[in-house]
């Protein structure tokens, strides 16, 4: 397929597919239109580092080191309740539990009675205490209500005790705090704002804290010096922003800027240093991690919502039936009861008042229509289904000892109704374990199986790296010619290629047991440095200013002048080094799209390298370009001065640095390109194919480049060569048609015309830039608003400039996107931010009312996981944050098909059968009272014994219904996976809906009719064997109850013994005539149901019925041969680019020296270069301004 022509994004005709959308890091208050003063001071309006106008400080948080009384001063007090005041600085103890010993009973009861059903039965219990109304003893309602409340309370208590244990464990952790002139062990809960703490390697950070500024390290080496440390810090008040912090430290008459790079966040872990010191800035509930611990969005299943509506319908039906029977009683009393002398009760009450009392009496008698035990039974079933998922050994991943985990018990049946799956790519579909596979050096490709002399082989053997004592034994490479070229040391470009890989990075190195252990900011970078290590260029050590490597047979130390770190906007990283011979060289590696536009016109190998990049991309490899540039001393000196000005800018420092970086990153000479493989997880193609057969559509949402994502789509069979690929531009066609039709809000909406009228399968690939145009993001809106006010761009007069005219136009863009995407067999959204991932899920939920599932493995997937109806976390290489935010978790993507097609389908079928049976048995039980009313003058007399009414739902019919909900299976797990079409009824909601509800209602009406009238007719004129008439009320009640129990339990195909507790039952059941009546009643009740089921399965069989009919045949068949992945590479160029999911590196840590052990000049100090650990959010003391960025903080917090 030919490359589509894209519109120029600068002209707003279309977005640039290569541009990563902005990060979603703004709060709503930042999106207000800027004032004129703010516009005048926008970054970029003046040169970098130019003086900025003074702005009023909004910093409202003051911290003084080593001075606890300072934070208790009156000006820091806030009113808590009435005249009670408390310091605004929180203690460090955390509390996540809900109850204590005194509040558990009242609070738990208060929460339970907020549920309408419980409140209804409490009101019913109160009515039963009123003598003139009640027709049933109070215990018939009290016993079930107490049972329901007790079970729920026990469940809540167990959950809260677990939170108590977790809080106690965290609060009682130990750390060292500076008190009385020396460091003492203290519990986390006793830390306070302003304390100086000492953290050791692998410690968790107990608070939010700031590390000491590097310029003052020499002054803070001893404890007695730290005891006199009295710095003031003015900073922003506590908030939930993990990616931003602003403050100023004042000490010894000087001021120092404090930003996020100086912060350690609570819950992180100290790395790359033996110990460090920090100052507590935020504690307890003020820390950023606790501020981000807001309430998780409560998710409810569609069956839950439907069930509530049905309960409301039942309640309405109860009111109507009770009202009709009350009217009947008033009419009966007026014409019959008041005229019969033997019915007079001596009360002076007219028929209307008696009807009024009868209404409330029937509300009590028929109360079992509203099932009190329904919700508890549902929770028990869901708990059991969750345990089955946890116990499933076929979803257990032995390599990491990771079982599947149902982290919620409320969503199991919704797993059987999924229509759309939204999946991350890296680490979810792929392993996120990178391997250096191929490269291009000086225009020549390496990596295919080749001999040392360059002869290509069909199948080779891995290179033997035994000549290299530092080689990584797990590294494999098939091209022997590259090793021979390096060992000969004759090709300058090849040596320069691997020298760049060993020097241009932010990897940390540790020496453990004589081995080198690399710690990289991303798997890509670790793979590249490991490759250089195996080819003879071994990264050995680094200090704040130097890097030492072994170049084949000798060591060399390079002075590091500057490190220009990677980020998702720059898409490259550079390092400026001074060679031992005095030369100054800039090495750079980055995405091909940014490197090629910065190459010198005289750069060699551009065309051949471009061809190799296309080839590597077609093989789904992640590519990266390498280049360099020599600098003169004068060039370096001039640029270094600009760098110094930009690095101390107090406003928009990052933008200023980026502009300075641009001035030197140009006129590069290309060396070559690398190709890294991120392998698919096992079973991914088969899983996707099987889910597609179940009519589940899979969308891949990734931050990777379009070509990379597209190639992975082909590799995992999400895309095939038979599909027609569409891009974001195709939305323009529908939008143009929309604009030609005036909006008609008042008329009935017409069904949208299909996007694709031609037969065949379609797929959509859309970039984050196009999603910006569709979603009309706030930040983009603010930026354009600002430019218009500055007169740099005219207001749009038509939507041709890319902006919607009104809300209708905006909504139509979204509708067009969803309609087009949902008509496709596969959708890939690439170069998207975490916020856009969540927005895409929201659009499908909003416009398609579909059940969605999101699956991911990293922190950038959390928003998407929380937004979907069901979130699944994969415990992979990127920590546990996705797992902690998910509803279900396991270790491999392939387990998703078992979760949905087996457990999800079973759970849905079981829950639907349970609900249908539950409603049926309650209708059959309750409506007997209705028929009995026509023979007792509508007097609210009950048809059963009191004990039977009390125990019917609790004992007599509880076990069968629970067994249905827990154990029912139509087909086994193997057949469920073999026939994915069995999943379709769940998507269609075919097994439980209002139609099924009314079928259960009429079934219950029919059964109650039989159960009442057959015994009534049998008892009408009967004589027993002993000459006594058995037609007394109690005997009738026992026969009716026995018939009911046997009928409903046989209906469920499970026996439930009914033992009687009444003498009347014993007397009645001794009569053979009554047993015949019971058998006749049960038979007539069940016969129509059995006949209908037989005819249905014979004449109109479902897919499940057909599979069940041939179950033995299918079980005896051999398993289908697993198809090998049919990845067919066409002639299209699908260039892949490395590292758009690559996070910010360790450049700031390295440049500050905080992460590097100093030479033993001062043995007492250690420069803390932590990657986020510790107990608080702390501040300055004995370690340089640590540049542990937000990505590092989040990454480390995931591992806790």
From TrEMBL:
Positions that bind Mg(2+): 424, 426, 857, 861
Keyword Endoplasmic reticulum found: yes
GO biological process, one term: phospholipid translocation
Reactions catalysed: a 1,2-diacyl-sn-glycero-3-phosphocholine(out) + ATP + H2O = a 1,2-diacyl-sn-glycero-3-phosphocholine(in) + ADP + phosphate + H(+); ATP + H2O + phospholipidSide 1 = ADP + phosphate + phospholipidSide 2; a 1,2-diacyl-sn-glycero-3-phospho-L-serine(out) + ATP + H2O = a 1,2-diacyl-sn-glycero-3-phospho-L-serine(in) + ADP + phosphate + H(+)
Chief localization: membrane
EC identifiers of the protein: 7.6.2.1
Bias type Polar residues, positions: 1162-1190
Membrane topology of this protein: Multi-pass membrane protein
Gene Ontology MF terms: ATP binding; ATP hydrolysis activity; flippase activity; magnesium ion binding; phospholipid transporter activity
Transmembrane spans: 309-332, 352-378, 914-935, 947-967, 997-1021, 1073-1095
Keyword line: ATP-binding, Cell membrane, Cell projection, Endoplasmic reticulum, Golgi apparatus, Magnesium, Membrane, Metal-binding, Nucleotide-binding, Translocase, Transmembrane, Transmembrane helix
Protein origin, superkingdom: Eukaryota
GO annotations of cellular component type: apical plasma membrane; cell projection; endoplasmic reticulum; trans-Golgi network
Cell compartments where the protein resides: Apical cell membrane; Cell membrane; Cell projection; Endoplasmic reticulum
One Pfam family, short name: PhoLip_ATPase_C
Family indicated by similarity: Belongs to the cation transport ATPase (P-type) (TC 3.A.3) family. Type IV subfamily.
Name the UniProt record assigns to this protein: Phospholipid-transporting ATPase
Organism encoding this protein: Muraenolepis orangiensis
